[in-house]
Amino acid sequence: MKTSKGRFITLEGIDGAGKSTHLSWVQSILEDRGKNVIVTREPGGTRLGEALRELLLDNSLAIHAETEALLMFAARREHLDKVILPALDRGDWVISDRFTDASFAYQGGGRGLATQKLEELEYWVHGNFQPDLTLYFDVTVELGRQRISAIKPADRFEKEQDEFFERVRDAYLERAYKFPDRVKVIDASQPLASVKNLVEVVVARYCI
Ligand SMILES: Nc1ncnc2c1ncn2[C@@H]1O[C@H](COP(=O)(O)OP(=O)(O)OP(=O)(O)O)[C@@H](O)[C@H]1O
Ligand SMILES: Cc1cn([C@H]2C[C@H](O)[C@@H](COP(=O)(O)O)O2)c(=O)[nH]c1=O
Q1: What is the DSSP letter of 43?
Q2: Among the bound ligands, the one closest to the CA of 70
Q3: Ligand nearest to the Cα of 44, by number
Q4: Which residues contact 25 (CB under 8 A, 6 or more apart)?
Q5: Which pLDDT does position 207 carry in this prediction?
Q6: Is 16 left (phi over 0), alpha (psi -120 to 50) or beta?
Q7: 125 Cβ neighbours under 8 A, 6+ residues apart
């Protein structure tokens, strides 16, 4: 995997944590500091990735846990090739709503797939390449569900039981513990203005 000139920032959290809400805030913090910013998401970000996203989130489909993981990484391979790496090579900053930490959290923690299998896929798809900074928006399962159910009908993941999301959250917190230099935990249960301040402190410090 080529060395990149730009920087790669990812936003993570259980459904309803507030990632999408804060994505444009991160973008404006970076743009105010003169960065050229590309905003993208996973699964998605390419034509193929968006088509896979539609299937992966489809409530009416039953998908084997390993198929789900393979499709997430297939979409990611395309995303890296078509969007993320070219942008970083141009010197742009890329912000992605989710990346590989989500696979360790949802397919690993949530579905119970072995970490080693996910690490093998991770190495296959992006070698040692990792985000430069990951903001993990932490909320309780109850609060995430409350927020998300107020705005849209549940997709294939959101219709999972609370126990599933407890495992997803635990797996995210484990990732933050394992990679403290990269993954910064944001207490996203605070009111919007406070979360914005927390985000600004982390991102501004990182931009210097
Ligand atoms: N700190 C906050 N306080 C109150 N409401 C919030 C806060 N953060 C986000 N919200 C609201 O919660 C809802 C869900 O937020 P958002 O769509 O950003 O979550 P998300 O993490 O992107 O969810 P998903 O992963 O399912 O897309 C939105 O209505 C948003 O306005
Ligand atoms: C990248 C990725 C995503 N997921 C899940 C997590 C979410 O429930 C959906 C994506 O929708 P959202 O709008 O970002 O909430 O997909 C996953 O299970 N594994 C992954 O690698």
Answers
A1: S
A2: 2
A3: 2
A4: 196, 199, 200
A5: 79
A6: left
A7: 73, 76, 77, 80, 100
Q: Please tell me the distance between residue 32's alpha carbon and the centre of ligand 2 in angstroms.
A: 29
Where residue 4 falls among pLDDT bands split at 50, 70, 90?
A: low
> CA-CA distance, 19 to 10, in Å (whole number)?
10
What is the band of 1 on the pLDDT scale with cuts at 50, 70, 90?
low
Residue boundaries of the structural domains of the chain: 8-207
CATH fourth-level superfamily of 8-207:
P-loop containing nucleotide triphosphate hydrolases (3.40.50.300)
State the residue for tokens 């193929």: 48
Contact 69, 107 (CB under 8 A): yes
Question: Please, are residues 19 and 139 in contact by the beta-carbon 8 Å criterion?
Answer: no
Cα distance between residue 62 and residue 111, in whole Å: 13
CA atoms of 34 and 19, how far apart (whole Å) = 23
